[in-house]
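Hey everyone, long-time lurker, first post.

I ran two proteins through the pipeline my lab uses and got sequence/structure pairs for each. Pasting them in order. The first:
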Amino acid sequence: MQFDGDLAEIRFGAGLSPLQPRPASAEQMLTRLQGADEMAQRFPVSSLEDAAAGVREFRRLSKDRKRQEGQRGYEAADKAFKSYRRAHNLARFGWHGQRLLRHIHARDGFRERLALFWADHFTAQGKSPAMRVLAAPYAESVIRPHVAGRFEDMLIAAATSPLMLHYLDQNRSAGPGSRVAKRRKRLSGLNENLAREVLELHTLGAGGPYSQADVRQLAELFTGLTVSREAAFIYRPGMAEPGAETVLGESYGGGKAELEQVLSALRDLARHPATAQHIAWKLAVHFTSDTPEPALISHLSARYQESGGALLPVYAALLEHPAAWETDLRNVKPPFDFVASACRALAVPETRIAALRPGQINRLLLAPLTPMGQRWEFSGGPDGWPEEDGTWITPQALAARLRWAMAVPRRLAQPLPDPRVFASAALGRFANERVQFAAGAAETQAEAVGLILSSPAFQRR
């Protein structure tokens, strides 16, 4: 395999940039991934713990407003709640700008792509007004620290995250025979959502070697995982189903209910051969093709099992396999990746994003993703965003991309780059004759830049 810096940045990174040199080797990409998270330090996003404090304040003000209804203090309470709710929601726009800046300025684009991949693999989102802004802090605290670590650590962090427990209704799940269920008849009872998604989506895969009985037993084992009033993870033994549970033939618990028995089951699931196969398939689809080479999947799966679920060796296996370096650009960029890579190619200055008000970030960089087919941070279900190219290339979605490409770059990069220079900066050796012709034949500079960004060559990776 001959390393290709242009292809590496397009397929495995955040896209080509006139500000950043292409990676020199796969070894350099992996070394950077093991190093400090420079972009998280430079463009910070709230931690989940800090953002949870905002959730608590949101709820406090909401309750105070409700208590004051019909009383003299209602007007002040209503004003305080609405003001905080607006600031609470606007924080999401600011975090979106920070995450875009990471893609624009990263030397380590592979890390940015992996952070997106794993946040989607472990999809979690808020279902109440107080919790809806937590997706970025969740990715920051639960996903990002583990992208170069061990899969089991990321799995445990996700499965015990307050946002995941809230999203999949695990926070209300109690064992039918638990102490809490016997005392409180109004509990909703056992909920299988988290157990099912851990088996079907996060570890073994939809066709994995588990049964409905395994789902039920894992759901009983998960009772006790819940969220405190402070919006933090807590394990409550009183909610746990008494006795041992058997999952895939292994017995867990049986004595005093403890968190460690849950973590032990998650570690075993993370190390299962079916999990290795499932993760290998997902990585191969995401980075190469909707129909990846079986040899690549086998290579990644074998490395996963050899490493005991350490992810860095799996990434090395991906970057060393010839199937990962097919020169045809196949996968269509999802909307966020399209906008982020466009901003990177345009070298949008940090000062320009920082100067945008939250509402402008929404109008220019966040809201346009919805007509492109991706309502950012709110996928259709716990399985995350589709990988199939057809999802992103509908007439309506392509029209939305074209509108964005023609209208927004001039608002972000002033002056716009020379189109012929920009074609090379954005696509490198993939700037084919059709792209070069469009760059030279357009009537205006803005139109030329828009045509380059709308070209099939830029839409794929």
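...and the second, right after it:
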Amino acid sequence: MVVLRSVLFLLLQSVLTIVFAVFALFTFPFSAFTRYRLITGWNRSVVWLARWICGIRYQVIGLENLPDEAAIIMAKHQSAWETIALPILLPPMAIVLKRELLRIPFFGWGMAMLSPIAIDRGDGRAALKQIAEQGKQRLADGLGVLIFPEGTRVASGVVGKYGIGGAWLATHAKALVVPIAHNAGEVWPKNALLKHPGLITVSIGPAIDPSGMKPDALNQRVQAWIEAEMALLPNYAQTATK
């Protein structure tokens, strides 16, 4: 049944992607916030399909930690699930992503309409400058910035190398940083067709004020909180099922 449900989910997700990509092109005249609300209808649909077809549920803890102003979100990266779900679980934000994703037919078209920060990961210095410049502009416009400091998805239980981009932006823009841990990789593994039923826990940490901190120190503090929280996520899942 897992194979059957996973294939059905993939087919429906593909159809939704094509439909919303074409729809996204017609949202160009609207403001960034209006485009965001309309286009993330795709995200809501996919998360709904994942629940009702694959049995992937989720819970969010720590919502009270989200600041009122636009902030920088630094999140664990295990799965495609968080890239789809976080934009609808959190306030509107610009996602930092690799530029080649925008070249993917249909999916890339829709992403381009969400004011992302598309970087060339092969040129680290230029990417850092781009994150700082465009990130400041997005924050000034009232959009948060979502960055996955590990850069690429890592398997469940693995700690990737935390890039400096998010911390660099935070210290230069003097914006709060919100760390996020989750265990989506347990049910929706990276690069895997099969999606398994289960409960994903998304844990939002207390906002960190970067004032007086160097990027390296801030990055280490974010990593320490996320990885410590990762060890607690199974306990949250057990509590939710009682």
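Reply from user beta_strand_b:
Welcome! Quick read of the second one: The longest helix spans residues 2-25. Residues 15 and 28 are 21 Å apart (CA to CA).
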